[in-house]
Amino acid sequence: MIYIAFIIFTLLVLLFVFYEWQHFMVFSPVYYREEPLCAECTLLSVQTDDGVELEGVVYEPKHYKNRVLIFVGRSHDAVALINRFATLYPHTQIITFNYRSYGKSGGVASEKNFFKDGLHIAELVRKNYGDFYLLGFSIGSSVAAYVASKMPVKGVFLIGAFDSIAALAKRKFGVIPSAVLRYKFSTEDFVQSIDAPIYLFASKTDEIAYIENARALKEKIKNLAYYVELDDLSHKELLWDKRVVTKIKEVVE
After folding, report:
1. Inter-CA distances, 206 with 14, 33, 159, 221, Å
2. Mapping DSSP to helix (H, G, I), strand (E, B) and coil, where does residue 230 land?
3. SS3 for 213?
4. Domain boundaries, the chain
């Protein structure tokens, strides 16, 4: 009897540890500023409904045709990346914000906050700047898809995207009870409600968002405008790849 109780206790402890560990696997708040903002870049700030201040930035060239709202990955400081985005897309207005607890943004990161804040930011961008495209990388692709499922946008670029956290976990760890999965990020559900054209970029050698997950997501997309599987690119390399950038520029510039 004592032995059985010990086993049950041990399993409960392991489940609790696994449940808490997921937060650190999904979210990785960072802050780094290696260089000053470009001359055409301006810091932004928005306040959420519950009073949390989020840090953002806009790159505004003198002449541009379109604007893109970007949601970055789990280990990115969005503001710190603006100079790189400006270099890659010099003729496009770029707007991006840090998630809660990332960069100088306050609050605590969570799936609910990612989606709620993403939609709030998008609504403010449309109100103050006008229509826009969405670009989401990695976990940010789920946020972008969620936003696009809730409001009209000109188009959606999903880079290093996956169908859901549950599907990723299943492929990596095998069968896992859904009850112990803390997060969903079910991009596959959101893309079925998006009317705007979707451009999906995947890598056959992506070690985070596996190509099988990208293919599964592709099958759920309601309005697929473009899909490509690239070779020999890691998860992080995909965002900056010349072929990805060139295709996006064809659309927005």
Report:
1. 29, 27, 11, 20
2. strand
3. helix
4. 2-252
Amino acid symbol at 74: R
pLDDT value of residue 2:
76
pTM above 0.70, yes or no: yes
- CA nearest to 157, candidates 117, 123, 202: 202
The matching CATH number, chosen from 3.20.20.140, 3.40.50.1820, 3.10.290.10, 3.30.450.40, for 2-252 is 3.40.50.1820
- The number of C-alpha atoms within 13 Å of 249 and in the hemisphere containing its C-beta is 14
Q: Measured in Å, how far apart are the chain's first and last C-alpha atoms?
A: 70
Label residue 235 left, alpha or beta by phi (over 0 means left) and psi (-120 to 50 means alpha): alpha
- The pLDDT of residue 207 is 96
pLDDT for residue 179:
66
- Give the span between the Cα atoms of 50 and 224, in whole angstroms: 36
Percentage above 90 pLDDT, the chain: 79
Q: How far apart are CA 94 and CA 13, in angstroms?
A: 45
pLDDT over 80 at 90, yes or no: yes
